[in-house]
Write a structure and sequence with these properties.
It is a single chain. The chain is mainly β. It is built from three helices and 21 strands.
């Protein structure tokens, strides 16, 4: 429902809350338009407020009898990813064709490139999250998609002992995006897909028993 509505809204949407400095002067055309405070927005029947990335209210613009909405504010309301590529002057909405590996900005004490830890069932994944702690423990890590992607495709394997209550959560809003009751060693390398449209930071966590390890290949887990 949200994606269908988003496609409709885009017909009359302009780019706002994005740096116009990236545009060359020849690409800009001066117009006379009006901020329209008289227009309200409802999503699935519920009133919604348009805000910029700092939480400040933004208004629709009316120009030549057409109303334009700020794309970033609308995408935030609908939970649809939006990102601006300044190199190509391109706005990316929703899921991308090419995946982006989650290695970018990944930070954990269990982040390793050691060949002794990056191989799973004969394949070397080069760069992984490998939690080989000794006692019963919670195991987890943070991801930072920054609202730029629509889908997280996370690969994960349990070694020797199951991973219990794997939870993928919107860390800022404390909302559970996905929960898997158990991942067994016999399940092999599982791929879990999660809708992360509009999500800035994610916490992935699960419970591991003594003697168990968590294996997450960072090169084949990706955002889209």
């Amino acid at each position: 429902m949200k994606k269908k509505m988003f496609a409709t809204v885009l017909i009359g949407t302009i780019i706002a809350s994005m740096a116009t400095g990236a545009y060359g002067a020849t690409k800009l055309q001066e117009i006379k338009a009006y901020l329209n405070a008289g227009i309200s927005l409802k999503v699935d029947g519920n009133p919604s407020k348009l805000q910029d990335s700092n939480g400040n209210p933004v208004l629709p613009i009316t120009y030549n009898h057409t109303t334009y909405l700020p794309v970033r504010a609308v995408s935030d309301v609908l939970g649809v990813a939006v990102n601006y590529d300044s190199k190509t002057d391109t706005v990316h909405l929703g899921e991308r064709i090419e995946g982006v590996a989650i290695t970018s900005q990944f930070n954990s004490v269990y982040h390793t490139k050691d060949p002794d830890s990056t191989v799973y069932k004969g394949k070397d994944y080069k760069e992984v999250f490998y939690d080989d702690g000794l006692p019963d423990r919670p195991s987890g890590f943070m991801l930072f998609p920054k609202g730029q992607y629509q889908t997280l495709s996370l690969q994960i394997a349990a070694i020797n002992e199951p991973i219990q209550q794997l939870t993928i959560k919107d860390s800022d809003k404390n909302i559970i995006l996905k929960r898997v009751a158990s991942i067994a060693p016999d399940d092999g390398l599982m791929t879990i897909e999660v809708d992360i449209g509009g999500v800035d930071s994610i916490y992935v966590s699960g419970d591991v028993k003594k003697g168990g390890q968590v294996f997450v290949p960072l090169t084949t887990s990706y955002y889209k």
